[in-house]
Design a protein that fits this description.
By secondary structure, this protein is of the alpha+beta class. It contains three helices and four strands; from the N terminus they run E-E-H-E-H-H-E. Helix 2 (64-74) crosses helix 3 (79-92).
Length: 119
Amino acid sequence: MYLDIHALHTLPYSNVNRDGLNSPKGCVYGGTPRIRVSSQSWKRAARLHVEHQLDTPTRRTRQIAKEVRGRLRERGWDEDDARRGGRAVVQAYGLVPDDDNGKDQTSVLLWIPAAPDRC
């Protein structure tokens, strides 16, 4: 069985997303032309909201465990404890850090504060 779900979200009239030619993105859905918003636009809006709440820029990474490990090492943790701590943070969110090449990276991109002192 194949199930395709489309969700319509009402927005006030605006050009929330434009294509490479700077034209509003659109599609015909239900026989009516509609403005289309890309998933990247929603993600950017969410990222900007997080940055506003943190009052600092963020950056995306798959290497959260490595980032946490590095910041714990800067605070005096030994390497083994810092690595376990970084992996524990990732696992607390239900993600599995991949051990390939010791990168401890996840399969999804996550946002972290750009400034180390903000976490």
